[in-house]
Design goal:
Helix content is 31%, strand content 24%. The longest helix is centred in the last third of the chain and has 30 residues.
Length: 155
Protein backbone atom coordinates (compact mmCIF):
# COMPACT_ATOMS: atom_id res chain seq x y z
CA UNK A 1 0.00 0.00 0.00
CA UNK A 2 1.51 3.33 -1.04
CA UNK A 3 0.42 6.70 0.23
CA UNK A 4 -0.26 9.48 -2.26
CA UNK A 5 -0.88 13.21 -1.93
CA UNK A 6 -3.31 12.35 0.85
CA UNK A 7 -0.47 10.99 2.98
CA UNK A 8 -1.39 11.39 6.64
CA UNK A 9 0.53 14.38 7.99
CA UNK A 10 1.86 12.58 11.06
CA UNK A 11 3.50 9.90 8.92
CA UNK A 12 5.02 12.48 6.60
CA UNK A 13 7.78 13.02 9.18
CA UNK A 14 9.10 9.58 8.15
CA UNK A 15 11.27 9.38 5.05
CA UNK A 16 9.54 8.08 1.92
CA UNK A 17 11.43 4.78 2.27
CA UNK A 18 10.43 4.27 5.91
CA UNK A 19 6.87 5.44 5.27
CA UNK A 20 6.49 3.00 2.36
CA UNK A 21 7.93 0.19 4.44
CA UNK A 22 5.47 0.86 7.24
CA UNK A 23 2.52 1.19 4.89
CA UNK A 24 3.27 -2.20 3.29
CA UNK A 25 1.94 -3.88 6.43
CA UNK A 26 -1.07 -1.55 6.86
CA UNK A 27 -4.55 -3.00 6.85
CA UNK A 28 -7.60 -0.87 6.08
CA UNK A 29 -10.27 -0.99 8.81
CA UNK A 30 -13.56 0.75 9.61
CA UNK A 31 -15.06 1.59 13.00
CA UNK A 32 -18.70 2.62 13.44
CA UNK A 33 -19.45 5.65 15.59
CA UNK A 34 -19.27 4.73 19.29
CA UNK A 35 -16.78 1.87 18.82
CA UNK A 36 -14.28 1.61 21.66
CA UNK A 37 -10.85 1.14 20.01
CA UNK A 38 -9.17 0.46 23.35
CA UNK A 39 -9.47 1.00 27.09
CA UNK A 40 -6.86 2.47 29.39
CA UNK A 41 -4.80 -0.36 30.88
CA UNK A 42 -5.59 -2.81 28.07
CA UNK A 43 -2.97 -4.58 25.96
CA UNK A 44 -1.57 -2.34 23.17
CA UNK A 45 -1.30 -4.80 20.26
CA UNK A 46 -1.99 -2.45 17.36
CA UNK A 47 -2.18 1.19 16.37
CA UNK A 48 -3.95 3.20 13.68
CA UNK A 49 -3.56 6.18 11.39
CA UNK A 50 -6.89 7.88 10.75
CA UNK A 51 -8.00 8.20 7.12
CA UNK A 52 -11.41 9.74 7.83
CA UNK A 53 -13.45 10.45 10.94
CA UNK A 54 -12.71 11.47 14.51
CA UNK A 55 -11.41 9.53 17.50
CA UNK A 56 -11.60 10.87 21.07
CA UNK A 57 -8.83 10.05 23.54
CA UNK A 58 -10.06 9.87 27.12
CA UNK A 59 -8.68 9.47 30.63
CA UNK A 60 -10.08 7.32 33.41
CA UNK A 61 -10.97 9.41 36.45
CA UNK A 62 -12.28 7.43 39.44
CA UNK A 63 -15.88 8.30 40.25
CA UNK A 64 -16.32 10.46 37.16
CA UNK A 65 -17.08 10.07 33.50
CA UNK A 66 -13.86 9.82 31.48
CA UNK A 67 -12.99 13.31 30.17
CA UNK A 68 -11.84 13.68 26.58
CA UNK A 69 -8.18 14.68 26.47
CA UNK A 70 -7.98 15.22 22.73
CA UNK A 71 -9.81 14.58 19.47
CA UNK A 72 -7.87 13.15 16.56
CA UNK A 73 -8.64 13.35 12.86
CA UNK A 74 -7.19 12.79 9.41
CA UNK A 75 -3.60 11.61 9.36
CA UNK A 76 -3.16 11.37 13.09
CA UNK A 77 -1.68 8.43 14.96
CA UNK A 78 -4.04 6.67 17.36
CA UNK A 79 -1.96 4.92 20.00
CA UNK A 80 1.65 5.19 21.06
CA UNK A 81 1.67 2.76 24.00
CA UNK A 82 2.41 -0.16 21.63
CA UNK A 83 6.03 1.03 21.31
CA UNK A 84 6.92 1.05 25.01
CA UNK A 85 6.94 -1.92 27.41
CA UNK A 86 4.78 -3.07 29.11
CA UNK A 87 2.62 -2.28 26.01
CA UNK A 88 -0.45 -1.13 27.97
CA UNK A 89 -2.73 1.66 26.81
CA UNK A 90 -2.20 4.85 28.79
CA UNK A 91 -5.45 6.41 27.56
CA UNK A 92 -8.71 5.16 26.11
CA UNK A 93 -10.02 5.79 22.59
CA UNK A 94 -13.48 5.86 21.02
CA UNK A 95 -14.74 6.61 17.52
CA UNK A 96 -16.76 9.82 17.76
CA UNK A 97 -17.84 9.51 14.11
CA UNK A 98 -17.50 6.61 11.70
CA UNK A 99 -13.75 6.09 11.22
CA UNK A 100 -11.72 4.65 8.38
CA UNK A 101 -8.11 3.96 9.33
CA UNK A 102 -4.94 2.11 8.54
CA UNK A 103 -4.27 -0.51 11.21
CA UNK A 104 -0.81 -1.81 12.08
CA UNK A 105 0.23 -4.89 14.02
CA UNK A 106 2.41 -3.55 16.84
CA UNK A 107 4.45 -6.73 17.24
CA UNK A 108 5.33 -6.70 13.53
CA UNK A 109 6.34 -3.02 13.62
CA UNK A 110 8.47 -3.53 16.75
CA UNK A 111 10.21 -6.45 14.99
CA UNK A 112 10.85 -4.23 11.95
CA UNK A 113 12.33 -1.61 14.29
CA UNK A 114 14.60 -4.22 15.90
CA UNK A 115 15.73 -5.58 12.53
CA UNK A 116 16.57 -2.17 11.04
CA UNK A 117 18.02 0.37 13.51
CA UNK A 118 17.52 3.28 11.06
CA UNK A 119 13.85 2.38 10.66
CA UNK A 120 13.54 1.91 14.43
CA UNK A 121 15.08 5.31 15.12
CA UNK A 122 12.78 7.00 12.62
CA UNK A 123 9.66 5.33 14.05
CA UNK A 124 10.80 6.12 17.59
CA UNK A 125 11.28 9.79 16.73
CA UNK A 126 7.91 9.94 14.96
CA UNK A 127 6.08 8.37 17.92
CA UNK A 128 8.11 10.53 20.34
CA UNK A 129 6.86 13.69 18.61
CA UNK A 130 3.29 12.42 18.84
CA UNK A 131 3.78 11.53 22.51
CA UNK A 132 5.20 14.97 23.35
CA UNK A 133 2.22 16.62 21.68
CA UNK A 134 -0.27 14.34 23.47
CA UNK A 135 1.28 14.99 26.87
CA UNK A 136 1.02 18.75 26.36
CA UNK A 137 -2.55 18.50 25.06
CA UNK A 138 -3.55 16.29 28.00
CA UNK A 139 -1.91 18.67 30.48
CA UNK A 140 -3.82 21.65 29.03
CA UNK A 141 -7.09 19.71 29.00
CA UNK A 142 -6.68 18.60 32.61
CA UNK A 143 -5.95 22.17 33.66
CA UNK A 144 -9.11 23.28 31.87
CA UNK A 145 -11.11 20.60 33.66
CA UNK A 146 -9.66 20.66 37.17
CA UNK A 147 -7.62 23.81 37.84
CA UNK A 148 -9.52 26.53 39.75
CA UNK A 149 -9.31 29.01 36.87
CA UNK A 150 -8.50 26.76 33.90
CA UNK A 151 -5.38 27.01 31.76
CA UNK A 152 -6.41 30.24 30.09
CA UNK A 153 -5.98 32.30 33.27
CA UNK A 154 -2.62 31.07 34.48
CA UNK A 155 0.24 33.55 34.62
Amino acid sequence: MTLTTTTPRMVQSLSAEHRDRLMRIAREVNFPEGTRLFKEGGRANQFWIIRTGTVALDIQVPGRRAPVAERLGFGELVGWSWLFAPYSWQLGAEAVTPVRAYEFDATAVRAMCDDDPDFGKAVGQWVGKVLAHRLQATRVRLLDLYAPYGSGNSV
